[in-house]
C-alpha cells in the first residue's frame, strides 16, 4: 500500500555503539496507517554537507532562502 501524501521532514537518527555515535540524516514522509503514525524514507541525506541538510530543513518548514552573490549582494 502506498502512503497517502502527507508531511515531509528531515529526521536525525543517532546510532550509538561501543562508545561511538554515528548520525544519519533521512528525508522522510509521515503518514497514518490505521491509528499509528508511520514513516516512509524517501532519501538518505547523510552524504550531503550539513549546511545543505540545514537548508533543506528550512525549506520544508516554509522558510525562504537567499543566495548571496560573491560581492555580498542579493
Can you tell me about this structure?
It is flat and about 50 Å long. The chain has one domain (8-60). With 74 residues, it is mostly beta strands. It contains one helix and three strands. It has a three-stranded antiparallel β-sheet.
- Count all strands and give the number: 3
Rounded radius of gyration (Å): 16 Å
Globally, the shape reads flat
Helix content: 10-25%
Question: How many separate domains?
Answer: 1
What assembly state would you assign to the polypeptide chains in this entry?
single chain
- Helix segment tally: 1
Return the string of H and E elements: EEEH
What labels describe this entry?
single chain; 3 strands; about 70 residues; mainly beta; flat; three-stranded antiparallel β-sheet
Amino acid at each position: 500500500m502506498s502512503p497517502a501524501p502527507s508531511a515531509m521532514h528531515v529526521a536525525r537518527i543517532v546510532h550509538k555503539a561501543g562508545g561511538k555515535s554515528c548520525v544519519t540524516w533521512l528525508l522522510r514522509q509521515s503518514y497514518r496507517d490505521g491509528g499509528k503514525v508511520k514513516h516512509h524514507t524517501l532519501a538518505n541525506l547523510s552524504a550531503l554537507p550539513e549546511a545543505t541538510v540545514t537548508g533543506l530543513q528550512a525549506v520544508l518548514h516554509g522558510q525562504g532562502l537567499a543566495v548571496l552573490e560573491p560581492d555580498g549582494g542579493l
